[in-house]
Amino acid sequence: MTNLIFVTGANSQTALTFKAFFASQCQSWFFFSHQQLDITSPQSIEKAILPILCRFLDYNEALIINLAAYTDVNGAEQNETLATTINAIGVSNLTNFALKHKLGIIHLSSDFVFDGNTTNAYNETDITNPLSVYGKTKLAGENMLHPLAIQQRALVIRTSWLFSPFGNNFLLTIYEKIKNSHPLQVVNDQLGCPTSAIQLCRFIIHAVNLFTKEHLFRTTLLHLSNQGIASWYDFACAINLFAGQKGVVKAINSNKYPTVAIRPKYSKLNLDLLKERYAYEPWHWLLAVKEVIEWLSVKDEK
Questions:
Q1: How do 154-159 and 221-223 pair as beta strands?
Q2: What percent of the chain has pLDDT over 90?
Q3: Active-site residue 59, yes or no?
Q4: pLDDT grade for 139, boundaries at 50, 70 and 90
Q5: Backbone angles phi, psi at 254, to 5 degrees
Q6: Average pLDDT, stretch 87-104?
């Protein structure tokens, strides 16, 4: 029997990573751009997905992977309504559709749901307290999935400092500046863990395969990052190292680099549940950065 996988946010860095690195494992998946499926419109969701459900009436399981999101952390401070509409109301629309048609959902959330006032890695059960509009909208999105989560047919994956060879992310920004010999000043007093979209995609495929066999998720909330801990300065130094030490990176305190949105000072995620429930062991973040930089270097040579 057929398994139907619907992916929103087809132009996101995670969706592009699926297509570039896991094309053979995603051949029967349906990817939708914002123009093809607008999660803020229930009618758009039905128009995009319902004809496919009707075409494959004998499907085993159907699952939505929601990669559509408002991810501009600073922009959300001035565009709270838009961020809320996409990150919360859009998730509610997907949840309602999934409940009606008996679909599951995998949804990405963020370490920004925490305030960073700790020195311990965050567990899934720890109290949330987002400091920014972005973090608040991501937490609201998590809560919208509750009706599906109580059926164990929703999985929220909180991740942190996501990077890939695609889209807009810290690694690509630093890599381009290093290639052009721009001196860099990067904050060294915010700690978390870089997460490769390649590692994230690999896990999502694993979770999808288990869901289609077991017909439920093994947990409804999960933390996923690469292993280890880093500051943004450490992250930039690693990019510089694997790019051939072409740039100069200087550490600065975050009070010398003010941003519109308040960011958590510490957002390391505990991965114990990931390892116990899903037997998934992510790479160390340094190896994950090296993998992406090597891919970019080969691409640059072509």
A1: parallel
A2: 88
A3: no
A4: very high
A5: -65, -20
A6: 97
Q: Residue with structure tokens 């990019």?
A: 239
pLDDT at residue 25 is higher than 70:
yes
Q: Which of 59, 70, 122, 134 does the annotation list as catalytic?
A: 134
